[in-house]
Amino acid sequence: MDLCHVPAAREKGWYLALMAPNVKGPNYAWLDPSRLYCHPQGLQDCVADLLQSFQGDPIDMVAGIDAMGFILGAAAATVLRKGFLAIRKAGHLCVQTVTQPYTDYSGREKVMEVRTDAISPGLRILLVDQWVETGGTMRAAIQLVERLGGVVAGVAAICIEDSEGGRWIRERYKCAHSVPPGLQPRFDRHQ
Known about the structure:
By secondary structure, the protein is α/β, with parallel strands linked by helices. The protein has a single domain, classed as Rossmann fold (3-Layer(aba) Sandwich), CATH 3.40.50. It contains 6 helices and 9 strands, in the order ββααβαββββαβαβα. It has helices at about 35-40, 40-50, 70-80, 135-145, 165-170, 185-190, and strands at about 20, 30, 60-65, 85-90, 95-105, 110-115, 125-130, 150-160, 175. Strands 5-6-4-3-7-8-9 form a 7-stranded mixed beta sheet, sandwiched between helices. Helix 3 links the parallel strand 3 (about 60-65) and strand 4 (about 85-90). Helix 2 (about 40-50) packs across helix 3 (about 70-80). One of its GO terms (molecular function) is adenine phosphoribosyltransferase activity.
C-alpha cells in the first residue's frame, strides 16, 4: 500500500495492510508495524481505534513500553492530553528505578525498569505497546506499575494475540487492539 493512499472506506484496522512481514528470520517479530507509523492517516486512525474503548475512562497517564510502544504511547498521550511515561529496558535511566525481569516474545531473558518518582498510589495508567505476543513484556510492565501503587487503567496494542499471556492480560484488564475479530486467528497463527 502506498504511504500516501487513504482508502475511501476506512474501517477499523484498514491500516494493518501497511505492515510488512519479517524477512530477517526467527529472531525477529513476524510482522513489522513501523511502516504503519509512516502513514499519517494510518497512525491517526490506529491511535483513535485503540483509544475508543477508553473514552470517558479515568486515565491519569499513558505509559509506553520500550521501544516501539513509545511511538503509540506518546501519540495516545498527546490525543488524551496526558503525560507520557517511558517503561525502559534496564540500564537506560539515570534516576532511581524499580526493575522487573521478564522473558520476551523470542524467549530471551530481559529486565525492564521504570523511574520510581513518576507513579504515585492510585495513579491510573494506560499501558501501550506495539504488540502483545506472549504477554511477558506487558505483564512485566503491569507488575512495575502495580508494585509502585499505580492502577492499570487498561492495555492497548495493535494486536493482543490469543496466547496464554494474551489471555491472562485480557481476563484481568480492560484491553483494546486494532485487529478485527475476523482477522484475529490469522494474527494468532502469524499468517
